[in-house]
Design a protein that fits this description.
Layout: E1 21-25, H1 29-40, E2 44-49, H2 57-61, H3 71-83, E3 87-90, H4 96-102, E4 106-109, E5 113-115, E6 129-131, H5 132-137, E7 146-149, H6 153-163, E8 169-173, H7 184-196, E9 200-203, E10 205-211, E11 214-219, E12 222-227, E13 230-233, E14 237-239, H8 242-247, E15 253-255, H9 265-278
Parallel strand pairs: 1-2, 1-4, 2-3, 4-15, 6-13, 7-8, 7-13, 8-9
Antiparallel strand pairs: 5-14, 10-11, 11-12
Helix pairs in contact: 1-3, 1-9, 6-7
Length: 279
Amino acid sequence: MNPRTGKEDAYAVKPAREPKRVMVVGGGPGGMEAAIVAARRGHDVTLWEKDGRLGGQWLLAAIPPGKEALNSFTVWQMGELERQGVTLHTGTAVDADLVRRENPDVVVIATGATQKVPPIPGIDGRDNVVMANDVLSGRVDLAGDAVVIGGGTVGAETAEHIAVHNHKVSVVKRSPGIAADMAGAPREFLLRSLRENDVDIYEGAKTLEIGDGFVRIEKDGSERMLPADMVVIASGSSPDDALAREVEGERPVKVIGDAVSVRKALDAIDEGYQAGLAI
């Protein structure tokens, strides 16, 4: 998580030639890293986050079993923001008008990504259909049998989280390979946990319909009904770049992390560090 590792000379933090007013929008790990480095260099930095707490999706990454230690990085970043004198504004959504009123010299956009909602018949307007992030954050209560639609890292870890809380879970993934985007060793431990917690996995399956208490899928040419008191959507994310498109051209703007393209948190941290160096 330390971007300077192996790049100590190239990533050395040096005082800025001209201190500037820097507005960082987004309090995930990338945005916090940009704010920390910019402040270390002598810039006047404000950090804005729409949620009531900092950490972004990194907070959710620390919730699945065995990943609690990830919280230590968020704690360090929050402490460093205070030590560097960064002004924090949490619980505040930023739009183009707010940027114009603040009138910073530079804006760093670290607004992350939003979860995709797949076009599945029956998905709209159902109280039992929830997003994976809402499950991990505790914003929704777990109930009965769950079907997780999507089997990447987020879907698989959300399934594990639900299963260890004594709920029956099924995972439906259209392509082969559960958590195929995950590193090898952690993936093996995750797959073992899914097996031990009796999670049913349907790879190469298409979700046909979400109904009252069921999800209808097709696998190997035959249909089947999965019991579903709760349907969890984990079908990937797309960049939240609306603010970047609205303010670009008005002042210098640096867009980092998932707001550019959805990738790993370490990419966002590195880009945040580089953004802080480049101002």
